[in-house]
Structure formats: structure tokens, C-alpha cells
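Kindly inspect both lines:
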Amino acid sequence: MTTLKEKVVSEVSKAVVGRRYETEMLLVCLLAGGHCLIEGVPGVSKTILAKTFSRCMGLSFKRVQFTPDMIPLDILGGFIFNLKTREFDFRRGPVFTNLLLADEINRAPPKVQSALLEAMQELQVTVEGHTEFLPSPFMIIATENPMEFHGVFPLPEGQLDRFMMRVNLGYPERQLESEILKRNLRLLDPRSLDAVCSSTELALAIEEVSKVEVSDEILGYLTEIAAETRADKRVRLGASPRAMVHLSQASRGVAYLAGRNYVTPDDVKSIIGNVLTHRIELDSAAVLTSPLLTRETVVREITQRVSPPR
């Protein structure tokens, strides 16, 4: 029997070459009820991956190209005067969808970035005291180019902490590049791909993920990891409680896709880099002392120091 993971990865691979792991991470994030930040230089398939993934999952999809002149109204919507009724009607913005692609999110000013905070955390939008609930499921896939410094606004820590995962899209391996070139000699419209999952199947999968057992031993393991990120002298800002909630939820998604109804330490280890590295901040003195020090290195060393339950 073909599993949900195999069906999604297979269908996405028809349009995006060599992004199996990244597709799996998007699926885990969706099933666990989180949002994903995709980083990568221009031209590495960030946008097409998001569009193809939404198509394969049968989700409603909207894309917003973030620019410095945007205002919150462009994302959330707002009240528009209706000439017929002589009243103000609320017109929904593009955030009212199942999957929102926030393309180049760091190009928008902080006021626009902050407009998404309520939507990401509470799955609702409030404009002038009027609250509208977002559809379910709801997921934001945001993209950014980490190499840009001009005309961008770095995401604040509070917003980064609302992304369950960060996925880095690097350059493809050499043997895959020729396949990418060959594939693009003929244009493939993502709309021609099939939805491999119905809304009923997706809702059932999300419910099953929420039932995956996280034992007290695993919870203790997560608590120890959190404590280590805050105690490490090389770290200025450690993992928040929200980060550890996201880590436990994402681990559930990994376990479900592996065919288990319980989380193991290996599930946590397989996902911890994607969940924690964008949330911790290194101490500037430690970086000056060790210029090659990275957040990935610190998270990996902390994971190695904390003994998993047996």
C-alpha cells in the first residue's frame, strides 16, 4: 500500500527534481499544524516547490509577493465601503486560504510582517475589532534569500519563533543538475499535477498525528534539550517553550509518516535542526572567538550532549 508520504513525494518530484527531504519536511509541518520558512538563493525552486506541494495536497493556494510598499490591508483584507448598502463590508485578503506562499517575506516592512503574527499563532485575523477565523488547515510557507542585505527587513525573533521549521534549499547535486536542465526544456504547469490527497484524507491524517503518543520520558528529553540551549554560554537566546512544543508536534508528524503511533528519540533528532536553528541566537563574543561557529553546530553538539531515554 502506497503511503501518504510516498504519494506526495512522487507527485512533487514530477515538477521539482531532487527535493525529497524538503517535501517530507513540508508534509510533516502541515500535518503537525505548523508553518515553514524556506531559505535559499534565487533559482533553487523555492516557489515552485510550495506551489507544487499545495497542488498535490489538494489545498487552496494563494501567493503574495512581498514588497517594501505593502501595507497590512494587502495581506489581511479590510473594510471597504459598499455604495449599494451604504455600509462598510469586510473584504477578505489573500491570507484566507489553506496555504499562503509569502514570497520573499523579508522584503516587507515590519508592520506588514507583524500583521501575520495573529494569523500564524491563533489562526484568526482581527481588523478594527472585527475577528475572522482562517480556514482549516492553514499553513504559511515563507521564502527568503539569506544572502540579501539591501532592501530587506530581517524577521524579528518573535516572528521566527512562530515558524515551526526552517528548511534550507541549497544548490542541487551535480548529477541532478542535468536532470533539472532536461526537465525544464519542456515547461511543466503545476496545475497539471494530480491531487494525491482528498480533504477528508488530510483531515484524518492530521487527527491521527495529534493522537501519536509522546511519553513522559520523551518530554523529559525535550526539557533537557531546552535547558541546554539556555545554559550554553555560546547562546544568547535559547529555545522558547513554543519551540519545544513545535519540536514535539513535528516529532509526532515524523513518527506518523514512519508508520508508528509513538515518538522515539530518533524522531526528535531527525527534526531538531529544522525546528531549533532559526530560533536560537549566538553570543557575539563567542562568534568573534570562533568565527566558524554556527547555530547548526551548537544544536548538533547539544543534541549529542543530552542523553536520550532508553
About this structure: Residues 45 and 133 are 31 Å apart (CA to CA). Residues 4-200 form a domain with the Rossmann fold fold (CATH 3.40.50.300).
